[in-house]
C-alpha cells in the first residue's frame, strides 16, 4: 500500500515536472538590469581577476512586476563567438537544455526593497578561455525562471569580455607536476631493480 502510494506520488511528481519544467527563454521578459565591471573587449584572468556584478529591477516596469520573484541567479554565459562548432555550449530556447550559461556567479533571494544589489566574484579557476557576458534569471517560488536581464544586447554582440583560462599561464606548476610523476615512475623502477638484485644476491648465498 505504502509502496503503491509512493509510486503514484512519484508519477504525479514527474508529470508535474514535465508540465512545469519547460521554460522557454523566448517567453521571458527582460525586466532586470544587469551590469558587470569588465569593459567591452577587456581580457581577464581566471582564478585572479574579479568581476563586480550589479542587478536590480528596471524601474520603467510598473511597481509589483517583481511580485512573484523569489530568487535571482547570476551566471556567466558564452558569447556566440565562443559557441561556434561547440555543441556542448549550444543555445537552446528550452532552458532545461540550454548550454549558454554554464557558470554560476551568485544566487540571492530577490530583494524588492533594493533597486540594485551587487556582488564581487573572483573568476573561478576552472573557467575556460572564451568570450562571455553575464545574465541574471529571476525565479518564482516554484524554482522556475520568470524573467531575465543581461549585460549584452538581445543579439549578444555588445559589452562582451574575454576570460583567459589558467592553463598556459601557470606552466611552472604543470612542469613541476610532470617532473614529479616522472620521478615517481623512475623511483618505482629503481625500487623493483633493487629488490630483484637483493633477491638474486640472497639466493646466491
Ligand atoms: C580579487 O579579490 C580578492 C578578494 O577580495 C583579492 O584578494 C584579489 O587581490 C582581487 N584580485 C584583483 C586582481 O584585484
Ligand atoms: C527598461 O525597460 C524599458 C521598457 O522595456 C526599456 O525601454 C529600457 O531600455 C530599459 N532600460 C534599460 C536601461 O535597459
Automatic annotation (TrEMBL):
Pfam families for this protein:
NAR2 (PF16974)
Molecular function terms from GO: nitrate transmembrane transporter activity
Q: Which UniProt keywords apply?
A: Cell membrane, Membrane, Nitrate assimilation, Signal, Transmembrane, Transmembrane helix
Q: Which residues form the signal peptide?
A: 1-21
Q: Which residues cross the membrane?
A: 175-194
Which terms in the GO cellular component ontology are assigned?
plasma membrane
Would the keyword Iron-sulfur be found if you checked this record's keyword annotation?
no
Q: Which domain of life is it from?
A: Eukaryota
A GO biological process held by the record: response to nitrate
Does Cell membrane count among this protein's keywords? yes
Q: Which family does it belong to?
A: Belongs to the NAR2 family.
> What role is this protein assigned?
Involved in nitrate transport.
What name appears for this protein in its UniProt entry?
High-affinity nitrate transporter
Organism of this sequence: Tetracentron sinense
What is this organism's lineage? Eukaryota, Viridiplantae, Streptophyta, Embryophyta, Tracheophyta
Amino acid at each position: 500500500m505504502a509502496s503503491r502510494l509512493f509510486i503514484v506520488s512519484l508519477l504525479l511528481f514527474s508529470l508535474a515536472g514535465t508540465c512545469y519544467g519547460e521554460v522557454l527563454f523566448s517567453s521571458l521578459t527582460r525586466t532586470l538590469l544587469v551590469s558587470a565591471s569588465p569593459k567591452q573587449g577587456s581580457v581577464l584572468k581566471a582564478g585572479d581577476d574579479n568581476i563586480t556584478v550589479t542587478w536590480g529591477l528596471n524601474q520603467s516596469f510598473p511597481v509589483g512586476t517583481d511580485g512573484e520573484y523569489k530568487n535571482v541567479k547570476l551566471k556567466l554565459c558564452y558569447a556566440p563567438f565562443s559557441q561556434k562548432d561547440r555543441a556542448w555550449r549550444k543555445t537552446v530556447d528550452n532552458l532545461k537544455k540550454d548550454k549558454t550559461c554554464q557558470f554560476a556567479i551568485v544566487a540571492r533571494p530577490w530583494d524588492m526593497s533594493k533597486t540594485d544589489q551587487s556582488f564581487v566574484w573572483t573568476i573561478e579557476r576552472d573557467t575556460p578561455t572564451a568570450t562571455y557576458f553575464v545574465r541574471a534569471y529571476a525565479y518564482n517560488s516554484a524554482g522556475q525562471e520568470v524573467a531575465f536581464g543581461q549585460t549584452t544586447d538581445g543579439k549578444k554582440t555588445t559589452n562582451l569580455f574575454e576570460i583567459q583560462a589558467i592553463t598556459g599561464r601557470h606552466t611552472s606548476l604543470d612542469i613541476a607536476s610532470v617532473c614529479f610523476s616522472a620521478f615517481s615512475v623512475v623511483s618505482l623502477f629503481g625500487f623493483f631493480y633493487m629488490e630483484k638484485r637483493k633477491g638474486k644476491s640472497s639466493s646466491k648465498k
